[in-house]
């Protein structure tokens, strides 16, 4: 089989010290995950239990779907409910009754808490159990938290998928489960590559419909497509499924390594692997080389936001020639991102969590060529002359696997080219 990626001369960063930050943080809340999840699950509805602020966030972040029946909404709890002065359970039951009576296409209903239960005075887990008994078998009711107090940006998806795992039926079938929501075109590419190697059956979580033939058991092996699925990983492990640790499929190297781990698990021979991957690998290498000309030799600083930071740092340093100064993530789960850490050369500072003021001081002192951060920090840093990349765009843009590798490099080169143009205009 094709030679595996070589470790950096330093031996990797899996055992490097990690700076633990536990101060004020600047991240999007987990409710945002609904924006991409509701597109993947065609018969699901996400009912956010919260305030008008939460309703405004979803509508403005997702865009108001004027010409389509939306598959998310909010059960707005007024101040009296939040203070425990009204029967919130009865109000919630009434909203759900009205929703399901009007929308008979709903087969999965997610009750999404926008605040901790202590704030909204509702136990959504018990509410979901009660409603499941009432509406079964036509509707399955689950709950998860998207609270910005309890979750960071991408943890909404993790919490949602983790809530689905315990209710999946048991199966003894030998199967591959791909875990993580991907754009349809990207998911199709991944399934096509694996199928062409003779691997199957292949299932995906989240499945597009509740009645999908999806079960779990000790003969299930799973590969994560997103590095922020720590709770889902744990839930699958409890069900007896086995994880296939691998670098994440960003860029040519990461995609090849991810595919190789699965291929080896299913006994794919080297000739077949090379035959399936040779052409897309060549296209990816060419696209990356063209898009990363601006990136070579430039420094980059990651603020914690999406939990994509470590795999992206591996891609940018090894395939695009960048130098990482600091790599931060909301959480660092070595059982998940360990293979990417193994491929990173020593040198960057690794930090978990955030104390935003201290991290801003480190960033200003380092003066990186490019800073990856959330929306709330980007404009102030741009005003100080630092080029920035919005972390949120890396989640909403197709960036996985071979055919998107050039686009991924381009997402980082464009802000540098823009900064060069602005500097040129300012000096002429």
From TrEMBL:
Q: What are its cofactors? A: [4Fe-4S] cluster
**Listed pathway(s):** Porphyrin-containing compound metabolism; bacteriochlorophyll biosynthesis (light-independent)
Q: Which UniProt keywords apply?
A: 4Fe-4S, ATP-binding, Bacteriochlorophyll biosynthesis, Chlorophyll biosynthesis, Iron, Iron-sulfur, Metal-binding, Nucleotide-binding, Oxidoreductase, Photosynthesis
Report residues binding [4Fe-4S] cluster: 29, 54, 115
Its BP terms in the Gene Ontology are: light-independent bacteriochlorophyll biosynthetic process; photosynthesis, dark reaction
The Gene Ontology terms for molecular function here are: 4 iron, 4 sulfur cluster binding; ATP binding; metal ion binding; oxidoreductase activity, acting on iron-sulfur proteins as donors; oxidoreductase activity, acting on the CH-CH group of donors, iron-sulfur protein as acceptor
Give the note describing cofactor binding and stoichiometry. Answer: Binds 1 [4Fe-4S] cluster per heterodimer. The cluster is bound at the heterodimer interface by residues from both subunits.
Q: What class of enzyme is it?
A: oxidoreductase
Reactions mediated catalytically: chlorophyllide a + oxidized 2[4Fe-4S]-[ferredoxin] + 2 ADP + 2 phosphate = protochlorophyllide a + reduced 2[4Fe-4S]-[ferredoxin] + 2 ATP + 2 H2O
Please tell me whether the keyword Iron is annotated for this protein: yes
Query: What Enzyme Commission number(s) appear in the record?
Result: 1.3.7.7
Q: Which residues form the Nitrogenase/oxidoreductase component domain?
A: 29-385
> InterPro entries this protein is in?
LIPOR_BchN/ChlN (IPR050293), Nase/OxRdtase_comp1 (IPR000510), Protochl_reductN (IPR005970)
Q: What does this protein do?
A: Component of the dark-operative protochlorophyllide reductase (DPOR) that uses Mg-ATP and reduced ferredoxin to reduce ring D of protochlorophyllide (Pchlide) to form chlorophyllide a (Chlide). This reaction is light-independent. The NB-protein (BchN-BchB) is the catalytic component of the complex.
Q: How does it assemble?
A: Protochlorophyllide reductase is composed of three subunits; BchL, BchN and BchB. Forms a heterotetramer of two BchB and two BchN subunits.
What family is it from? Belongs to the BchN/ChlN family.
Protein's name in the database: Light-independent protochlorophyllide reductase subunit N
Species source reads: Roseobacter cerasinus
């Amino acid at each position: 089989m094709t030679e595996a990626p070589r470790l950096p001369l330093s031996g990797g960063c899996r055992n490097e010290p990690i700076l633990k930050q536990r101060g004020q943080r600047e991240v999007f809340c987990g409710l945002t995950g609904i924006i991409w999840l509701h597109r993947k699950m065609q018969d699901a509805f996400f009912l956010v239990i919260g305030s008008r602020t939460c309703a405004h966030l979803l509508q403005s972040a997702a865009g108001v779907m004027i010409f389509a029946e939306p598959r998310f909404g909010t059960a707005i709890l007024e101040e009296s409910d939040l203070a425990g002065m009204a029967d919130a359970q009865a109000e919630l039951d009434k909203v759900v009754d009205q929703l399901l009576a009007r929308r008979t296409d709903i087969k999965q209903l997610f009750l999404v808490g926008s605040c901790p239960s202590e704030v909204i005075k509702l136990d959504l887990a018990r509410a979901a159990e009660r409603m499941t008994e009432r509406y079964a078998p036509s509707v399955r009711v689950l709950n998860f938290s998207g609270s910005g107090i309890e979750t960071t940006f991408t943890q909404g998806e993790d919490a949602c998928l983790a809530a689905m795992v315990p209710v999946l039926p048991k199966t003894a079938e030998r199967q591959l489960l791909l875990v993580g929501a991907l754009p349809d075109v990207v998911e199709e590419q991944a399934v096509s590559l694996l199928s062409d190697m003779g691997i199957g059956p292949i299932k995906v979580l989240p499945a597009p419909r509740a009645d999908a033939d999806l079960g779990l058991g000790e003969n299930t092996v799973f590969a994560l497509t997103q590095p922020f699925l720590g709770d889902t990983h744990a839930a699958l492990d409890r069900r007896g499924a086995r994880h296939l640790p691998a670098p994440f499929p960003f860029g040519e190297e990461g995609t090849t390594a991810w595919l190789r781990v699965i291929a080896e698990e299913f006994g794919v021979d080297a000739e077949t692997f090379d035959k399936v991957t040779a052409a897309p690998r060549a296209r990816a290498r060419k696209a990356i080389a063209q898009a990363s000309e601006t990136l070579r030799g430039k420094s980059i600083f990651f603020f914690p936001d999406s939990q994509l930071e470590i795999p992206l740092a591996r891609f940018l340093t090894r395939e695009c020639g960048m130098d990482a100064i600091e790599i931060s993530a909301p959480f660092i789960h070595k059982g998940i991102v360990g293979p990417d850490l193994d491929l990173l050369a020593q040198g960057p500072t690794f930090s978990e969590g955030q104390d935003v003021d201290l991290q801003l001081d480190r960033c200003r002192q380092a003066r990186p060529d490019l800073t990856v951060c959330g929306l709330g920090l980007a404009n102030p840093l741009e005003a100080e002359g630092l080029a920035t990349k919005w972390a949120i765009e890396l989640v909403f843009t197709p960036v996985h696997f071979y055919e998107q590798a050039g686009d991924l490099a381009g997402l980082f080169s464009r802000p540098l080219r823009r900064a060069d143009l602005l500097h040129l205009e300012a000096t002429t």
